[in-house]
């Protein structure tokens, strides 16, 4: 009689290409990255970093209602996006705006969404940062944790049935793996042999809950093995490692018609959102260490610079240019008109249902009775 032990004392290794100083780890077997691709990857990480900084301050100024940064997780965003095809379907969580940025969503479109004006694709009906774009094969972000995971498996199975040379890619945090939807999705994907790539950002914290209080297993990677899914653990702060892992996982998913799980070890430098103060549950020293010593943008920058592809002058010019573009986009978005009242009720059904018509009538009566309580910049 022999029971399988609860966990192995030998941890699953973490794949990396660059060390913390941006030097190549030898030997390695990474997917090669050209100068053009490397420069664009760094530029987009800087753009994402700058966008986060400015929009975060906007929320603190009371100009937008909510924001959530990707600080510390820029490599997972940009490097994974760079390794995918535009035909691949993305089902994000809420910390992957960099994937949409890579696919061509403009800074102006990001600003419109955060301000919820008439140019916002969601017509102001979503919280800020709940981006979505049919054009870019990027499903709209939803707040509930892990709901996108089984949906991604369904999308992947649809691609398989249609014989498409593409896969579904879905993102989640370590906290999502404590949800039932994660386990349903993993089993569904394995049994149906769906071409889906699960990318889990294990950033150490599910809001205020540390990973050691979430599970006793060796991280997330072993959960894929439990369901019969090929899995890999990768250094999520190493852009080259993330690019190589996602690029290879995509090939496996499409060519072999099977799911793949990637656990990207990273760290959430920012607060969970603007509704959170992370210094209440972790030390400022811990945050500063990851922000300065383990910064994924700086690590990749050092590698690009060593190759002679980037300079400090390029860096200054890029940051200045992005900042100017963002400030202009914010000015335009802030002045744009808000969506009309009727947009609260449309697009649910082809024809407005009787109960929604009743709700709209009741709302208009309430506004007539209490006009001062209704925002003056929203057209009636």
UniProtKB/TrEMBL annotation:
Keywords: Metal-binding, Mitochondrion, Oxidoreductase, Potassium, Transit peptide
GO cellular component: mitochondrial matrix
EC number: 1.2.4.4
GO molecular function, one term: metal ion binding
Cofactor: thiamine diphosphate
Reaction(s) catalysed (UniProt annotation): N(6)-[(R)-lipoyl]-L-lysyl-[protein] + 3-methyl-2-oxobutanoate + H(+) = N(6)-[(R)-S(8)-2-methylpropanoyldihydrolipoyl]-L-lysyl-[protein] + CO2
Cellular compartment(s): Mitochondrion matrix
Residue ranges occupied by any Dehydrogenase E1 component domain in the UniProt entry: 45-340
InterPro entries, per the entry: Alpha-ketoacid_DH_E1_comp, DH_E1, THDP-binding
Disordered as annotated region, ranges: 360-380
Catalytic EC class: oxidoreductase
Predominant place of localization: mitochondrion
BP GO terms, sorted: branched-chain amino acid catabolic process
Compositional bias ranges of the Basic and acidic residues kind: 361-380
Quaternary state and interactors: Heterotetramer of alpha and beta chains.
UniProt similarity note: Belongs to the BCKDHA family.
Entry protein name: 3-methyl-2-oxobutanoate dehydrogenase (2-methylpropanoyl-transferring)
Organism: Pisum sativum
């Amino acid at each position: 009689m022999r029971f399988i032990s609860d966990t192995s004392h030998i941890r699953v290794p973490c794949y990396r290409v660059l060390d913390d100083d941006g030097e190549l780890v030898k030997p390695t077997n990474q997917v090669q990255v050209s100068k053009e691709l490397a420069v664009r990857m760094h530029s987009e990480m800087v753009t994402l970093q700058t966008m986060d900084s400015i929009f975060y301050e906007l929320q603190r100024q009371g100009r937008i209602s909510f924001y959530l940064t990707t600080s510390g997780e820029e490599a997972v965003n940009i490097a994974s996006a760079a390794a995918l095809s535009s035909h691949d379907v993305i089902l994000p969580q809420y910390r992957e705006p960099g994937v949409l940025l890579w696919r061509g969503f403009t800074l102006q479109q990001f600003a419109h969404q955060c301000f919820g004006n008439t140019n916002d694709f969601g017509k102001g009906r979503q919280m800020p940062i709940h981006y979505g774009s049919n054009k870019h094969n990027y499903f709209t972000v939803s707040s509930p944790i892990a709901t996108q995971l089984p949906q991604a498996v369904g999308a992947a199975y649809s691609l398989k049935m249609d014989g498409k040379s593409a896969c579904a890619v879905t993102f989640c945090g370590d906290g999502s793996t404590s949800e039932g939807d994660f386990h349903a999705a993993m089993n569904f994907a394995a049994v149906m042999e769906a071409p889906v790539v699960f990318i889990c950002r294990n950033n150490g914290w599910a809001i205020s809950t540390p990973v050691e209080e979430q599970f006793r297993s060796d991280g997330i990677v072993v959960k894929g093995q439990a369901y019969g899914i090929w899995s890999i653990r990768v250094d999520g702060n190493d852009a080259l490692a993330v690019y190589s892992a996602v690029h290879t996982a995509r090939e496996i998913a499409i060519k072999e018609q099977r799911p793949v799980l990637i656990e990207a070890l990273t760290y959430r430098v920012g607060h969970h959102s603007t509704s959170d103060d992370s210094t209440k549950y972790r030390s400022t020293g811990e945050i500063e260490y990851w922000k300065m010593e383990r910064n994924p943008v700086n690590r990749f920058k050092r590698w690009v610079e060593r190759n002679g592809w980037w300079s400090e002058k390029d860096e200054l010019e890029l940051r200045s240019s992005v900042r100017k573009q963002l400030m202009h986009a914010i000015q335009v978005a802030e002045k744009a008109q808000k969506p009309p009242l009727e947009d609260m009720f449309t697009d649910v059904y082809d024809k407005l249902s009787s109960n929604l018509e009743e709700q709209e009538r009741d709302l208009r009566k309430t506004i007539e009775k209490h006009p001062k309580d209704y925002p003056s910049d929203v057209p009636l």
